[in-house]
Amino acid sequence: VGNLGGFLSSPSSVEITTCFIKYVEIHTNEKEVTEKEVTLHLLPGEQLLCEASTVLKYVQEDSCQHGVYGRLVCTDFKIAFLGDDESALDNDETQFKNKVIGENDITLHCVDQIYGVFDEKKKTLFGQLKKYPEKLIIHCKDLRVFHFCLRYTKEEEVKRIVSGIIHHTQAPKLLKRLFLFSYATAAQNNAAADPKNHTVMFDTLKDWCWELERTKGNMKYKAVSVNEGYKVCERLPAYFVVPTPLAEEDVQRFQGHGIPIWCWSCHNGSALLKMSALPKEQDDGILQIQKSFLDGIYKTIHRPPYEIVKTEDLSGNFLPLQEIQTAYSKFKQLFLIDNSTEFWDTDIKWFSLLESSSWLDIIRRCLKKAIEITECMEAQNMNILLLEENASDLCCLISSLVQVMMDPHYRTRIGFQSLVQKEWVMGGHCFLDRCNHLRQSDKEEVPVFLLFLDCVWQLVHQHPPAFEFTETYLTVLSDSLYIPIFSTFFFNSPHQKDTNVGRGSQDPQSKPLNLLSVWDWSVQFEPKAQTLLKNPLYMEKPKLDKGQRKGMRFKHQRQLSLPLTQSKSSPKRGFFREETDHLIKNLLGKRISKLINSSDELQDNFREFYDSWHSKPTDYHGLLLPHIEGPEIRVWAQRYLRWIPEAQILGGGTVATMSKLLEMMEEVQSLQEKIDERHHSQEAPQAEPPCLLRNSARLSSLFPFALLQRHSSKPVLPTSGWKALGDEEDLAKREDEFVDLGEV
């Protein structure tokens, strides 16, 4: 069954349409019995809202399309298509299954745009409809595209299912009406934490003390409980870390604003801090009070020559949130492909479209900023104070990137999850607003966390042995943003979460809801599938005995202390006043002409630091810097291209590398077993390497999210564009050339 628009516009549309109707009629009669056997699997608390039968889901393959007959249903959790031949698809080859979301399931939060086709014209659907479409197209936030033909569905069912989907995916919601709460209430007795999940949640004072001790930050900083019960500030977590000299009264004075919050400490004693701006005031008297307050705060953290603080204003000209939103809106359109023809028509403009989106340039800017901060901390032994209006967007992003680059603990899976908990969840990133889960404001929707994951992917791609997790881990983590059974990404702050789950309630009879964490991967994946989240290339740090540790520590520090310029003398007399005035201007909302780090001296230091590090062998358990030159910043192919069959690499991509690696691991293990047998070893056999890749005969770069699919037979350059291209000489001069997306 083909695309109706293409068929009906062809010369033989009558014959093909007749065949199409006969095909549907024949299969309708044949499937009447089997339809009853296809059951809708509901999660605890999930309710069916509306459904429609005799729906065709188009499946793209080759140069045409064919359809799968079934039911389209909408619940308070998801949109699901139940194909009659679903049992045939449920075989061993689909090895990377999500236990919560099926292949044909779309959570309501994952729906991005809904389109209807009226008389071969595609229109955006919203609100109440006067006329209902013959075809429904759903674009998802994980970049899947679904096509449903409703032409042979009963009119009343079409009205019901289309109206239901539009309402439940687009209408503004109340927080307590999210499926998260229905699921938690219904599954309360079954909820249990994964005993193997050792992620530090940073919801206790003990967690923060442990982190201080791990990073040796407890010499200069202290964990405080002044905000316990959120009595000082609802924006901050109940527990956090501040400089030791800071008095608790200072924390309370402006409800947590204007206070340096500790993020992380480097091995050389320098620290990464963040601070939110004070409320903007017009009254000169209040402004003077704020200025005096900030002056005192600054003196507690800036004590030259022993303690030097450099401020980084992230709320100024660095990267406006609106720019991130606009760039990603353009970028994602490159991958929301409706059909094969559209893919090949836009392929010739790939370079210009990619460049005009500016998404890769934004990634480069974020990585560059993180490297600049790393240079100040590592080479110049400076404390860094990140400034932002609420310290909950770019502060989270940049501070997390710096820690991933400087601390190998955060390149392990448990460490990375703990980092997200510390800097994003407890750091007050507004996931509810930034992901627009309540559909209340499109202006607030900005993919800051997705930008962070994309930046981390650049590091994973460039330095695979340094990370314990894989790009597949990052991809499924990005997908988990839209699964409303996990609380991790569905609140704006710890206070909002605790308030809505009933913690701190005065009623002794009320029991707080036990919400799932996204870090319990066993909820989504079987153990066999979870092996794809662990990187077999990871170079685990060798364990040393006590006699070796002291010597290795000094060697490690010499490696990190890269030779740059001569050590700087202590700042001149006017430095402190200039820095203080600059800090006060930023925090009081004053406009500045340029960022601090735009000086030529800093650019020279950055280049020397950057070039020096890349000129030496990489220590995967030390400092890690990305390449940020032109083509080094790449498209995250697995996440963005995984649903596009035309973009696959047959037997290629990272899956080919992994497959070969696992074969070598198996061969080495086999040889080891023979050696052990020869020496009559009594040791237990080693665990068998994961076999997900070896057992599948249909591998491509789409794995593990899709099996091998055949390429369409479209030409490399669309014939419709030949006239506009000109001759070969002119074509060679053009910037936009054909690019194999598999090489992106």
Describe this structure in words.
It contains 26 helices and 14 strands. Mean pLDDT is 81; it is low at 1-36, 87-92, 547-579, 589-599 and 711-744. The two termini are 32 Å apart. Helices cover 39% and strands 12% of the residues. By secondary structure, it is of the alpha+beta class. It has helices at 4-8, 13-37, 86-89, 155-170, 179-186, 205-214, 248-253, 284-301, 321-332, 340-347, 350-357, 359-378, 394-406, 413-425, 431-434, 448-462, 471-479, 494-501, 527-530, 546-560, 575-587, 600-614, 637-641, 654-678, 722-725, 728-733; strands spanning 48-61, 64-75, 78-83, 105-107, 111-118, 121-124, 135-140, 145-149, 221-224, 240-243, 261-265, 271-276, 309-313, 383-388. Pfam families: 3-PAP (PF12578), Myotub-related (PF06602).
Main beta sheet, described? 8 strands, antiparallel
Count of strand segments:
14
Quaternary structure: single chain
How far is it from the N-terminal to the C-terminal residue, by CA?
A: 32 Å
| Structural Rg | 28 Å
**Shape descriptor:** globular
Strand order of the largest sheet: 4-3-2-1-8-7-5-6
Question: Helical stretch count?
Answer: 26
If you average the pLDDT, what whole number results? 81
Roughly what percent helix? Answer: 25-40%
